[in-house]
Protein: Sterol-4-alpha-carboxylate 3-dehydrogenase, decarboxylating
Organism: Silurus meridionalis
Amino acid sequence: MATRIRPSSKRCAVIGGSGFLGRHLVERLVEKGYSVAVFDISQRYQVPGVTFHQGDLCDKQALLKVLKDVSLVFHCASPSPACDDRQLFWKVNVEGTRTVIQACQEAGVQKLILTSSASVVFEGTDIKNGKEDLPYAKRPIDYYTETKIHQEKVVLEACSKEKDFLTVAIRPHGIFGPRDPQLVPILVDTARKGKMKFIIGDGTNLVDFTYVENVVHGHILAAEHLKADSPLCGKAYHITNDEPIRFWDFMSQVLIGLGYDAPRYHLPYSLVYGIAMLLWMITCLLRPLVNIKPTFTPMRVALAGTHHYYSCWRAKQDMGYQPVVKLQEAIARTVASYPHLRKEELPFLGQSEAFCISFGCVFSEIRVD
Ligand SMILES: NC(=O)C1=CN([C@@H]2O[C@H](COP(=O)(O)OP(=O)(O)OC[C@H]3O[C@@H](n4cnc5c(N)ncnc54)[C@H](OP(=O)(O)O)[C@@H]3O)[C@@H](O)[C@H]2O)C=CC1
Ligand SMILES: CC(C)=CCC[C@@H](C)[C@H]1CC[C@H]2C3=C(CC[C@]12C)[C@@]1(C)CCC(=O)C[C@@H]1CC3
């Protein structure tokens, strides 16, 4: 019988390696001496020493070609939460993840590290210092979260020492950093539309925002500590910055850093949540006719108006995790990385000219077209 030669433990594949987190992970793996193959539906960059394979993770044959001489796989691909397409989330996050597991097992991959999400336990109500043993959300707040729950279960259940196939799930929360296509761009877009004037609720709700390099560090530690005799097998781990911050302080620091005003006026949480629910139902009803993407979804309002921060004690204990970049440094680096999103300054004007321009802007806002 021919014995399969085990590929080097430093040969890995990153599914979703063209995305925001995936690309940071690839760059760090290369720095650490790993040889990396990227598998993604899109190719957005090139890095010397990294091979790119464009394909859909629902296609097992395409995956098998890439995974055949790899011992370690990171799976951080997902459709964007903003697409709100239930069928696509099921196809990619649940069915596609089953295909990834089958392909890994057939190809003889030994370790699979899934990027899950701390939101798998979030139901839209406060979570303070949540541990990994909180139950999965019974009523997940959106389709994306619903499928992230199923995805995590499928991956953790596949962990088998007998089959020499070990799995672990990393649950990050509120990832931010350079090149993030979501958090800062959505924030700036909302500010530019003049909609960032309001604080939802009393503004004291604490939230985890996690710098992307810390999330990458958590993934690599998990890969390096995942062994048949380690406690990591088949378990989920929160990876955060371990510095919960008021949601609205974080938003304000990023906005002010980029030259925009911080929100000032308070709106009751239940009122905004109710309006977001109503808008969401209307968009669902109208979907066959027109595809509207509201800024204020119930999930976003819940994220903006409740406490949701998590303990990463388990990751500290089992894999020696500690954040490598502190929150204030992370915010400063992130702000500096978006020069193109800075508010454009008015050229130097006399007081009366500046007043006329400001007045004109206010007036144009109340114009009826
Ligand atoms: N960003 C955050 O705050 C958080 C993210 N996560 C999780 O982290 C992971 C990475 O997120 P992030 O980097 O922000 O997301 P991105 O959208 O930036 O990256 C995901 C990548 O996966 C690709 N992809 C989508 N569908 C497929 C498919 N069928 N086959 C192959 N590749 C595919 C995407 O391509 P394309 O862009 O063309 O669709 C994209 O390149 C996700 O699993 C997400 O659920 C968890 C918690 C928080
Ligand atoms: C902590 C965590 C899980 C963050 C996830 C990132 C996004 C969900 C947020 C990034 C920008 C946020 C944002 C809002 C909601 C949550 C985000 C999309 C609002 C739409 C909330 C309501 C407002 O007043 C405007 C906000 C713009 C920015």
In short: The first strand starts at residue 11 and ends at 15. The chain has a mean pLDDT of 91. The chain has twelve helices and 15 strands.
